[in-house]
């Protein structure tokens, strides 16, 4: 039987707490204590997320175009912007899939 490494568990716990704090600050940039309202409703939150993903895609496209035209030589910055754009798109796709699955589950429930 293995002993539980309490130091490792506590380190993982602290890492999760710090990640949650970063996410909270991203969602609530103006709230110092986290008590401000996130969004008025789900639609507003999704709309804001879609606009943010769109902005990432436009920025990646602009950087790619600048690189191909020779206006910049920062290939690392271009690749990072493209990866952020790609991850944002994948996230959007996964959220859509989860929402569609939830809708299908609700619709298949017996009344």
TrEMBL record:
The family database entries (HAMAP family) matched by this protein are listed as: FliE
Q: Which gene encodes it?
A: fliE
Listed transmembrane segments? none
Q: Which UniProt keywords apply?
A: Bacterial flagellum
Q: What is this protein called?
A: Flagellar hook-basal body complex protein FliE
> Which PANTHER family does the protein's record reference?
FLAGELLAR HOOK-BASAL BODY COMPLEX PROTEIN FLIE, PTHR34653
Q: Where in the cell is it found?
A: Bacterial flagellum basal body
Family, per entry:
Belongs to the FliE family.
